[in-house]
Amino acid sequence: MLMLRKFFKSRPTSRFGLTYQRDLNVAIIGQSTFAAEVYKLLLKNGHRVVGVFTILDKGNRQDPLAAVASENNTPVFKIKSWRKGENALPEIVAQYKQVDAELNVLPFCSQFIPMEVIEHPKHKSICYHPSILPKHRGVSAINWTLMNGDKEAGFSIFWADDGLDTGPILSQKSCPVLPDDTVDSLYNRFLYPEGIKSMAEAVDMVANGTAPVIPQSTEGSSFEPSVRKKALQKVDWSRSGVDIQNFIRGLDSSPGAWTIINETEVKLYKSSIWTNETPTGEQVTVDTIQFPAIVHSNGLLITCNDGLKINIERLSVDGKMMAASNYGNADTVQETIDYTDQEKAYIPVVESIWKNILNMEIGKDTHFFQSGAGSMDVVRLIEEIKDKLKFTLKNDDVYMSPVFSDFCNTLVKRSRGSTDDNTRVEYDPVVVDVNNMKLQFAKQLFINGQFVDSESGKTLECINPADESVICSIQCASEADVDQAVIAASRAFEGEWSEMSPRDRGAVLYKIADLLDKNREELATIESIDSGAVYTLALKTHIGMSIDVWKYFAGWADKIHGQTIPISHARPNRNLTFTKKEPFGVCGIITPWNYPLMMLSWKMAACLAAGNTVVMKPTEVSPLTALKFAELSVEAGFPAGVINILPGLGSEAGRAIAEHPDIRKVGFTGSTATGHAIMKASAESNLKKVSLELGGKSPLIILDDCDLDKSVRMSMGGVFFNKGENCIAAGRVFVESSIHDKFIDKVVEEVKKIKIGNPLERDTHHGPQNHKAHLEKLINYCKKAKNEGAELKIGGKRVDRPGYYFEPTVFTGVEDHMFIAQEEAFGPIMAVTKFSSSDLDAVIKRANSTDYGLSSGIFTKDISKALRFAEKIDAGTVFINTYNKTDVAAPFGGFKKSGFGKDLGEEALNEYLKTKCITVEY
Questions:
Q1: What is the active site of this protein (predicted)?
Q2: Could you tell me if 39 and 49 are in contact, meaning their C-beta atoms sit under 8 angstroms apart?
C-alpha cells in the first residue's frame, strides 16, 4: 500500500498534454510477488523497466521483485528508507533520478515515497490500492473491506498526489464478496490476477494518452488505521455474530484475530457461519461469551451472544498452528514414517523448492513462516509441488505442517492416499449385520458436508423388499432443507470448487471411483437389502458400472474446451471468435429406485466433471447407497457443499428442486408423468435447463434367420434383467411367425429354471420387486392383460413367501390395441407378438406406434434388414444381435415421451454445460 505525506499542494496540469509514445521507460517502486508479476507483464507489453526500487533483503531472502529483476539484468535498488523525518534523503533521490524514468509504477509499496520522486517523471506516478476508493483509504484497506461487511470489494489505480490514497482515479474494478471470503481468497481470486492485468493496462493507457484523470469524491470516503496494532486484532464478543464473523475473516490469514480461550491467548482462522445441528464435544470458555464453546471433530464451535454460531477450523496457540478440533489435546510426537526409496527421492525435490522460495539453506527444523514466507508463498509451494511431484496439496497442509520434516511427512502421507480425521464425517450410524459383514450407513440428510436432521423432523421408513422388515427410518427433506442445500452448493460453486483446476477436480472424481471400488461389497449389500437387487448383479452392474462412470468422467474433467470460429472481419480490423464451455452452477438431480447408485453416478459424475455443484434427491424408497456415497464423498476430498443429498418425497423435495430459482439445471430419471411436472415447474420458475430420461416400451424384433438360442437368452435378459426394473427393458417382443412357437417353448423352459429367492444368496437369479406398491401394480397389470385377451404362458402372480417377489411372466397373443402392448410394465413381464416377415416396414411401424422411444433391438443375420431397422426405428438406442449392452462411453437417452437429453458419453457433458461465444476485434 502506498503511504504518502503532503510534500506539495498542487499538480501541474500540463502533464496531461504531453506527447505520448507506445512504450515507456518505467521505474517500479514496490515489493512482493504482485509487483514481480506486474514487472514481467510490462516487459511483455514492450515497455522498458529502467529501475526497480524495493526493500532490503530479509536475512538471506530478497524480495520477489528484486529476484525477478536481477534475473533480467534490470538495475535493482534496495532502499531501507526514502527519507529521514519529513525530509527526503538526497542521496536516495539522486540515485532514483539517475534511471531517468518517464513513469513511476507502484504496484505494492509499503514505504513513504517523497513527492520529489512521485513528481519527477514526465508522466508522474500511478499506484495500486486494494479498495474502491475513496472508501477504505489506508494500509489495511482489504482487511477493513471484510471487517466492515462490505458486499463488494475491488481495487483502484490512481494518480499519486500529496495525500494518502487521495489522488485522481485512473481505473477501478470490483467483485462481489462471497460469504466465506478472506483476505487471501479475495487476493487470489480477484485482486491479484485482475490487479496485475489492470496495472499493465493502465501503463498502456498512459503511453497512448488515453489514461483518465477522475478526481476522487470526498463522499463516502473513509480512512481506517493499520490492523497491525494488536489492540485492533482482539475480538469484541459484545458485537453481533455477523460482525464477529466479518471481523475474524477480515484478519485471516494475517495478522489473525485473537481472543482468550481457557485463559490462554489464541488466534482464530478459517471461520464460517454454522447452520447445521450443534455437535457434541468438549466445552471450553471463550473470553466474555455467556455460552460455552464446543471442540468437535470439525473445529471449534462458538455461539455468539446473539445466538449465531461460528465455526473455527484453525487455531494458533503460542505461535503454533493446529486444527481447532485438536485444541486441548496433549501435544503428540510427530509421527515417524518409514519412507520407501521412491519417497526418499521426493525429499531433495521438496528441499529445492523450499530453498528457492525462502532463499536459504533448509534443515529438518526450518519453519516455513518463521523464515519469512507469506500467503502467496503458500500458493507457490503448492503449485511447484504439483508441477514437480504431481501431488495436490491444500493450503492447510502447509499451515498445519510448517516445519520442513513435518511437511515432508504430510506430503508422503498424501502420496499414499492417506486421509486425516477431517476427511471423515461424523454421524449417528445405522449398523446392520448382514451378508457376513457389518454394514454402517447414515440416516440423515447430507448438506454442506455434514449429516443433519431435516428441518421438519419428518422421517421415511426403508423397507427390505426381501422380507418386508424395516431397515431403518431416515430423515425426510423439506423445502426448507432444499433451500439450505442450494445455499451450500452455491457457496461451494462460487468458492473452492470453482477455484480448483479442472485437473484437480478430475483427481477428486478418480478418488471417489477408487473408494467405491474399495467399498464395493458393502455398497452392493446395501443396494441389495434396500432395492432388492441380486447381490451378484449389484456387484457387477449397480456398483461396477458406477465405478466405471466416475473414472470415465474424471478423465473428461480437464478436456472440456470450446473452439475457434472463422467469422467475417470488420475491415480494416480483424476479428477472433471463440467459444467457452461453462458450468451452470447449482444443478438438481432426481433419481429413480431401480438402480439407486448407478443412476446417481450416471448423472452426478458428468455434472461434477463439468464443474457444477449438486443438490440431489434420491428415491425415497431406496436412498441408502446415496447416503453411503455421501459419506465416501467427504473421504474423497469433495469440498463441503459440492454434493448435497436429500432423501425425500417427490411431491415436496423433488418439487422444491424443480421450482428453485437458484438451480439452473435439473436432470431427472423416472416416470413420464413426473417428467411433465418437472418441465412445467422448471419453465414457470426460471426456465432452467432440463434433461429427462423417462418411460419406455422398447420393441425387440426377432427374425427367423437369427441365432435362436442366443435370441432366447438375450430377449430373456432384455425382459427379466434386474427383475424387469430396467428402463430399457424389452417391453414388447415381436417374433416372426415361423419360429414363434419354438421361441415360446424355449423361453418357458428357461423361465422355469430361474431361481427366485433371497437376493443375497449367490445362486439366486431373481430377487424381490423394489417395493409393495410396485408389486401390486404388476399384479394388476397382468390381470388387465388377461382380461383383454392376452394368453398367459407362465407366471403372472406373486410368489407365496414373505417379500415382494413376483414370478417371471410370459404373455403371448399380444395385440396392438391392448394395454400390455402400449404401456410399460417395468417388471419381469414378457409381452410377445407374432408377425409375418413379408413386410419388415410393417412391423417397424407397429413398433413405432407407442408414445415412447427409449430403446429397441433386432436379431437377424441379414445386415441390410438390421441397418434398415436401425434407420427407421424411432428410438434413442438400437441394439443389433445384442441387448442391454450399455457402456459409459456410449450416449444414452430417448425420443418422444421417453424424454430428451443424454446420460453417459461425451454428450452427457453438454447437458451440464452452457456455451459462451466471445468475439474480439483487433
A1: 129 (proton donor), 693, 693 (proton acceptor), 727 (proton donor)
A2: yes
Confirm if 326 and 302 have CB atoms less than 8 A apart.
no
Query: Is 824 labeled as ligand-binding?
Result: yes
DSSP-derived secondary structure for 524-554: HHHHHHHH---HHHIIIIIIHHHHHHHHHHH
Residue 176: CB atoms within 10 A of its CB come to 12
Q: Which residues pair with 700 in a beta bridge?
A: 733, 857
d(CA 782, CA 790): 9
Residue of 648, 267, 330, 284 lying closest to 460 (CA atoms): 648
SS3 assignment for 809-833: EEEECCCCCCHHHHCCCCCCEEEEE
Q: How many CB atoms lie within 10 A of CB 822?
A: 16
Whether residue 6 has pLDDT greater than 50: no
Q: Determine which one of 47, 120, 123, 129 is catalytic.
A: 129
The three state secondary structure string of 489-500 is HHHHHHCHHHHC
Nearest to 546 by CA among 632, 478, 450: 632
Most confident of 109-113, 359-363, 419-423, 459-463: 459-463
Q: How far apart are CA 534 and CA 770, in angstroms?
A: 11
Active-site residue 727, yes or no?
A: yes
In the block, cell 486441548 appears at 328
Cβ neighbours of residue 126 closer than 8 Å, sequence gap 6 or more: 103, 104, 105, 106, 157, 158, 159, 160, 170, 199, 202, 203, 206, 211
Specify whether 129 is catalytic. yes
What 3-state DSSP class applies to 799? coil
pLDDT tens, residue by residue, 398-426: 887 888 988 998 888 877 765 454 557 88
84 carries a ligand binding annotation: no
Check whether 4 has a pLDDT greater than 80. no
Express each pLDDT in 229-253 by its tens digit. Answer: 899 999 999 999 999 999 999 998 7
What's the chain's Rg over C-alpha atoms?
Answer: 34
Q: What is the pLDDT of residues 561-619, one digit of tens each?
A: 999 999 999 999 999 999 999 999 999 999 999 999 999 999 999 999 999 999 999 99
- Element (DSSP H or E) covering residue 33: helix 32-44
- Is 161 annotated as a binding-site member? no
Taking each helix axis as running N to C, give the angle between helix 32-44 and helix 192-208, from 0 to 180 degrees, rounded to the nearest 10: 40
Could you confirm whether 47 is annotated as catalytic? Answer: no
